[in-house]
Amino acid sequence: MVLDPTKFADWEIAQDAESRMKTIRQLGSELGLEDDELLPYGKFMGKVDDRAVLKRLASRPNGRYVDVTAITPTPLGEGKSTTTIGLVQGLARRGKRASAAIRQPSGGPTMGVKGSAAGGGLAQCIPLTQYSLGFTGDINAVMNAHNLAMVALTSRMQHERNYDDETLLKLSGQKRLNIDPASVSMGWVLDYCCQALRHIVIGMGGRSDGFMMQSHFDIAVSSEVMAILAIARDLRDLRERMGRIIVARDRAGAPVTTADLQVDGAMTAWMVEAAKPNLIQTIEGQPVFVHAGPFANIALGQSSVSADLVGLKLSEYHVTESGFGADIGYEKFWNLKCHYSGLIPDAAVVVATVRALKSHGGAPVPRPGRPLPEEYGKENVGFVEAGCCNLLHHIRTVKKSGAHPVVCINAFVGDTRAELAKIRELCEAEGARVAVSHHWERGGEGAQELADAVMDACREPASFKPLYSWDTPFAERIDMVAREVYGADGVDYSPEAADKLAAFQKREDASSLGLCMVKTHLSLSDDPDRKGEPHGWRLRIRDVLLYGGAGFVVPVAGTINLMPGTGSNPAFRRIDVDVETGRVKGIF
Fold first, then answer.
1. What is the DSSP letter of 250?
2. Cys-Cys with 323: which of 117, 253, 262, 329 at CB 3.0–4.6 Å?
3. Which residue is catalytic, options 51, 94, 249, 412?
4. Which residues 6+ apart lie within 8 Å of 52 measured at CB?
5. Contact 563, 193 (CB under 8 A)
6. 390: left (phi over 0), alpha (psi -120 to 50) or beta
7. For 549-588, what is each residue's pLDDT tens digit?
8. CA nearest to 299, candidates 112, 143, 518, 80
C-alpha cells in the first residue's frame, strides 16, 4: 500500500517506496541489459555502458520518442519531471515497455526553493536521497573538469608574468601564450546558488599567490562541460570537444583553448565515468535514465543524447525531458539536441497547470516560500481562459516543428471541472490532444489518459523539421527564433553583442555552430514580468558568447545570471538527518 500524497511529504513517500524497490540488477535485467553492460553503484543505482548496448543492439529499431516540455512556468515549476515519471508509469499500466530520461538535479535548487527534480507525490524516481545529494558524482566530475581548466589558465598567467620567454620555455616546455587578462571569458563553477560569488577578485597577495584579476563563479550545471556531456555521442566525441573549449584570448585576439593549455586530456579523465548514463527507477519500478543537467534558460537543459539513444533501443516508448517552457527547452531540443542525435520525436507533451494559467491570466504571481494568493484557492474560469493564450502559443511552437503536441493538464487537488473543461476546449480547438492527468495523486493509474493520448499521437507519422538550416547566418537564426518561437517583433543588439556576432559569423566553422539562446524562463519575452502572450516587443541581445567545445554561439537576452541566488527561505532550512537511522528527511 502506498502513502497518500495529500497527507505525506514527497520524501516520506519516497522512503516508503524504497523499502520495496527493485535491485539495480533486477531492474537492468528487466530492461534488457546484459550483466557486463550494467555497472552497479551500490544496490539500487548504476551506470550503463552505452557504447556496448548500442553496438549490441545496432540493428534493433528504435522505440517511440516523446519529449516533455511545458508552458511558461511560475517560479514554483509546473511538474515536468513529475509528468515524465507519471507518463512512464501510465504507459507501463497499459502494458508498454517504457523508460524515462531526466536531468540530474543541481545542488542549488535542491537546497534552494525548487527541490530535487525527482518528481513528486506518487510520480517520483528513487532512491531520492542519493539522487538528490551527489548521486554517482557526475556534477562533481563536471566541476572538477571545468575548474581544472581555470587552474591551468590562472597558473599559466602567473608564470608568464613571472618569467621571461627563455626561462618559461625551459620550465614548462611551452612557448608564451601571451594571454590577455582582460579577455578571460571563463570563470569558476560551484553547484550552489550563491550570489556573493558572481563578482570576485582572485590572486590577491604576492607574486607567488597567483595572477590578480577579476573573476566570477557560475552554477556548475551551466558549465560548457555539462553541455558537452549532454550532446557527446561517445567518449571520442567528448574528448575532441573538450580540447576546443575557449578560456580566453591572447593579446592579438586569437582564442586560447584548453588544448593550448594542455589540460584537455586531464579534464576528459575526470569525465570518463560521468560520460555513462545513470540508471534508477520510478516508485512503480520502471527504468529512469539520469544524465546531464538542468537550467535551459542559461544552459542546454536537456537529458543527454547518449541516454536517449540507449533508451530508444531498450524501450517501446522512451520519454525524455527538456527544461522550462517550449520557447526555451523544446526549442533547444528541436534545433540543437535533435541535430546532434539525428533523432526525430513522435510527440511532444506540453505540461500545463491551472495554477500557471491563472498566473498568465492576471492572478498575482505565486512566490516561492510564500502562501499562494487567495485567487488560486477558488474557481476562476476567467483567469484560466485568459491565461490559455500562453499555452496555445507553446502548442503552435510544437506544431511548427512538425511533432504532434499533447497537452497534459497536470491536475492539482483543488482544480475544478469547469477550469479543466475550458482548457480542454481551447486546446482541442487548436488541434492538440488533451489529457487530464492525476499522476501526482494516483501514480501510473492516474496517468492512463495521458498515456493513451501519447500513444495515439505516436501512431500518426510526424513531419519533424528544424526551424532553420545551420548554413543560415546567426543573425537570421536569432531573428527566426525571436519571431517564430518567442513572438517578438524583431531583435536589437548592444554594440558589443553586434560586434561579437559579426566576428563569429566570419569563422570558417560558422555553419557547424549551433545556436543556444539564453533568456528568462518566466516569460515568452526577455522581461520576466510580462506574462501571457506578450505583443509589441523586441528581443534585446546584450552579449554573445562562444562555446567552442560544445559548438554553440550563445546570445544572451535581457538580464540573467549564470549564478542564481539563494533566497530568504531556502529548502536547506528543512533538511536534516535522523541520527538514529541515518536517513535524510526534508528533501522535496
1. B
2. 329
3. 412
4. 34, 36, 37
5. yes
6. alpha
7. 999 999 999 887 888 888 888 889 899 998 999 999 988 8
8. 518
